[in-house]
């Protein structure tokens, strides 16, 4: 009887230690870290857009339509900005946020192309700095989005495989939203 109990306890301990709980937790934490980075970089770019609009208005006031598109895209992105990294787990929030970021990138790109028609604007040091910052921000956001997507895929794979699926159900872990 003692031997059976010892074998059972040894078997139970080995199953619990390899149950996947810690790996699920680690993958979930990685999703939150990458989501935070994605959101923070997007916020920083949003903060730069009004400065860009102001500089362009000074040198190219006739570009009202393009400036209006940038402003609208910024407002839309700000409106769909997730309140917390966890809220990116909601598929609708994720899609709206990603769509807003994409629209803002396109609008800023159009604005930067239009600037080629204004030599005084291109010569403005403040504009050149903002242009470089916007281009860098766009690249960083793209990289952060890719990291987020990879972290979500790893997490979803972790909670979808056996025996981790059982542990995930007991933990209440749900698949995270993915870009489609």
Domains (count): 1
Estimated helix fraction: over 70%
Global geometry: elongated
Oligomer: single chain
Number of helices: 7
Rg (CA only): 24 Å
Structural class: mainly alpha
Largest sheet: none
Per CATH, the architecture is Up-down Bundle
Lay out the secondary structure.
Blueprint: H1 2-17, H2 21-59, H3 64-79, H4 91-114, H5 119-123, H6 125-160, H7 164-171
Helix pairs in contact: 2-3, 2-6, 3-4
Structure description:
With 180 residues, the chain is mainly α. It has one domain (20-171): de novo design (two linked rop proteins) (Up-down Bundle). It has helices at 2-17, 21-59, 64-79, 91-114, 119-123, 125-160, 164-171. Helix 2 (21-59) runs antiparallel to helix 3 and helix 2 (21-59) runs antiparallel to helix 6. It is elongated, with a radius of gyration of 24 Å.
Descriptors for this entry?
single chain, 180 residues, de novo design (two linked rop proteins), 80% helix
